[in-house]
Structure prediction request, 314 residues.
Amino acid sequence: METFKAPFKGRSLLNWMDWTASEINTLLDIGFQVKAEAHRGEIHQRFLGKTVALIFEKRSTRTRSAFETAIGEEGGHPVFMSIEDIQLGGKESIKDTARVLGRMFSAIEFRGFKQKYVDELAEYSKIPVINGLTDDFHPTQALADLMTLKENFGELKGRKVVFCGDGRNNVARSLMIIAAKMGIDFYVFSPEELFPDKKILEICKVFAAESGSKIEMGSKIDIVKNADCLYTDVWVSMGEETLKEERTKILAPFQVNQNLMNETGKKDTIFMHCLPAVKGQEVTEDVFESPASRVWDEAENRKHSIKAIMLALI
Prediction:
């Protein structure tokens, strides 16, 4: 079996709050290593004999595909578990499920609603747990986003990323945390009622003070001036479908369109989206399909960054 010295063996990734900039850079380095290996057509078996439980309460394209292919290509065995397949939080408590899985698997991925579920899985399983998305955070997406930014701009420190839309959602929160850690200036362009909550802002401003980055909110278009990247996400997240009409009305002025791209004043501003996208709502099709769009690089980087996380933790 090919050996790989996991720098953070046994650790979990629940969000980015307890990770340092140096540690995040280590994960990025591994991500670029495995991406280069993949593009050269190399075959490695670094997960041979390893099994990973993939728990999904929410549907997924990129997260499930990234985990399953990354594990399988490295000789490991992914076991997909929907809430129809196991007793998670129903007949059996999260604590008990965690203790069973911890005796059988090398690691656990969880994609669902409640952050407390992924936290409990990590506490009681005693094996690495990776947050594949909760209502609060989406850390694996944020690492893929950093890979994409670094590919485009090289140095991350001092770059300006503007998140346009619902500033309270899990992607915005995770991006704000990791940006603050890495010295990236992070701005939110949204209506005031959808600014990130004060608690997460206060936490991120402490990180930003240490790294020298800026964290700012605004509802006026001039906030996108000099942005290196305009980023958006769907206006209605899974579980919030009843709010569609209300969200569409208040978020329409924050759509990423060519006019907004022009307002940055920079010709090399890129567009990013975690996907899936509702073209014609949060982003227009011309921007989504434009040369400025990096959505497919970003989607591919989900796989390489997730493989990097598992190599580092398992």
